Amino acid sequence: MLKKASLITLMLFGGSLSPAGQAATAGAATTPAEGKTPGEIVAQAPKSDWRAIAADDLLVMDLGNDKRVIIELTPKQISNQHRNNVVALARAHWWDNIAITRVQDNYVVQWGTPSSARALPKGAVAHPRQSYEFPRSNSGYRPVKSRDSYAPDVGMVGDFPAASNGNTAWFTHCYGTLGVGRDYAPDTGNGTELYIAIGQPPRHMDRNLAVVGRVIEGMHYIATMPRGSAPMGYISETDPPAGTIQSIRLMSELPRHEQTAYEVLDTLSPSFDQYVQARSHRLDSFFTISADGADICSMIPPVRKATS
Questions:
Q1: Is the peptide bond preceding residue 128 cis, with omega within 30 degrees of 0?
Q2: pTM of this prediction?
Q3: How far apart are CA 70 and CA 196, in angstroms?
Q4: Does residue 155 have a pLDDT over 90?
Q5: Where are the alpha helices (DSSP H) in 182-248?
Q6: How far apart are CA 34 and CA 41, in angstroms?
Q7: Which domains does the chain have, with CATH numbers?
């Protein structure tokens, strides 16, 4: 997406290796798990099939009036300057009291302050290297059995949806994806302006903008913001305010009594394999015809508040 400054800024996993050196494919079984629904599989997943999400991998966005949005950052093993910038900007309280500037129906919610308006904080890079793709090897990429219109292969890196051409891999744009706004290439964006996808997965943006996270709680607060009436959904002077971000913090920076722990269904677990299979082959008490396929964005592993 392009930055408004030039009429502009537009807008998740690891796997064990087979003997051939390739990650085992999730959901490769040919029959569903005893007709269970995806929800039943998640509800019955044992504690051992859930993985804790580290507090320093979570952003807490407060919108006021007790509206809180939780965002998980992309895996640390895919370290890049865009992710690092977002962490540095959050630590510097860059987005405090920032107005939402764009709400385009079925596309994105966007906000930010251009870095030209003030100096970047320590640790942030003004011109990050292009990092839309990364080497598939050693990324923990695990294929998922699914047909895809945008890539030869899809899978998971950590608990994020991804795609691959065999040599490289990249995170895919799905509902709730957090990305970095930018100007025209060769600009890659530096994280000062961000967007969240609020509609049908905008997969055409894959490999064109940096994906740095995904919303895991509070998405309804983002998706229901009033749409902007100006071109591309920008908020015009006559529009009612779409909303103001009071603050964005790392969960680990909040006082301990204010922190909330989350866990995600482990994409290496048997329960996740069953979940993918059930998503791809819906044959239960409601569905009588299976589509025999599912989009990668519908296979993102569920997240819940941590249980003791």
A1: no
A2: 0.90
A3: 12
A4: yes
A5: 219-223
A6: 10
A7: 4-25+55-260 (2.40.100.10)
